Amino acid sequence: MIYRHHIAPPRAFTQFSHDLIRHPRLSSDAVRLLTWQLSLPEGARESLSRTAERARIGACAFTRAKRQLKEEGFVHERRVQGAGGHWVTQQLVSNVPLSGDEAAKVLARMPVGTSSTSVSPQVAPSPRIPAAGAPTPRPTDGHPRKDPGKDTSHRPTEPERKPDPDPAPEPAEIPEAARALVTALPHLSPDLRRIPQGMHDELARLISRWLTAGHTPTAIRTHILRGLPDDGSPVHRPGGLLRYLLRDVPPASTPTGSVPTSEQPASTRPSSRLAALRECEGDHVQATLFRPTGDETLCRRCLTSPPTGQRV
Predict the structure, then answer these.
(1) 13-39 pLDDT, tens per residue?
(2) Is the pTM here over 0.70, yes or no?
């Protein structure tokens, strides 16, 4: 149950009809905008947008409320031209719905407002000072008479390009031995298990250069093992590391056993985990490393197993 208590205001009030306040097709923003405008003092020229700003009605809500008031006949607008050629928008707000003809008659009796800024008279142009020289006609052909490349630009002299040194000749066909070495590289070390498939041909060409220079497959594998990190750090790009290790081909006649291991540079020394290993010279499909106990050249498996084709 609801109760109502009403005290008539002694001053500063405006009478509105119940039909206006309870209009079924006007939103609360439209009713607030209309009643705010009707409560303004006589002679006030506050626009609807200014009223919406003071009533804290948003832009979208104001557009919707104004459209509703115009559709119901409470608001009418027209554009007229006043003194000095200025166009003025006239807005008519009424407490009862008006038709278009009725609103036009009311607006016709209203004075057209003029801008507070007076219209400045047209200023006559000042006399011009003529340019020096006789007047010449404007060229109409659109093309210069001389080549601007010879007169207007000073191009720097380009340095002579030296011919690139001839790269090392690569074999037209990749030998099968080079391809077999590339295929066996993932079994050589766990760091080389993720070689991109697209780099196999490139690595095979690099290895074929080593083979052409006289290096054996064992020497190539040993060179690759010496280039792997010996501190246990992972190899994120094994293909790039192999390209770097195989890019420069040293001469095959350089003796490597005459130089003591302690005097070899750090980049060519084998890692600590591979320094004590030796490659088996037996019959293996892939290179096999073992830890010797003396001067043996065969791993334990080759020493204990019979040769191929011999029955035990």
Answers:
(1) 788 888 888 899 999 999 999 999 999
(2) no
- Give percent helix, percent strand, percent coil of the chain, each to the nearest 5: 35, 5, 60
DSSP secondary structure code for residue 26 in this structure? S
Structure letter (DSSP) for residue 127:
P
Helix (H, G, I), strand (E, B) or coil at 91: strand
Long-range contacts of 6-15 (CB under 8 A, 24+ apart): 14/38, 14/39
* Residue 57: count of CB within 10 angstroms of its CB: 23
pLDDT digits over 258-280, tens only?
444 444 444 455 566 666 777 88
> Alpha-carbon distance 157 to 168, whole Å?
32
pLDDT for position 155: 61
pLDDT the model gives residue 122: 47
Amino acid at 301: R
CA distances from 181 to 48, 192, 204, 207, 270 (A): 87, 12, 8, 8, 20
Asked if residues 290 and 277 have their Cβ atoms less than 8 Å apart, the reply is yes
Question: Following CA atoms 247, 252, 253, 255 in sequence, which dihedral angle do they give, to the nearest 10 degrees?
Answer: 80
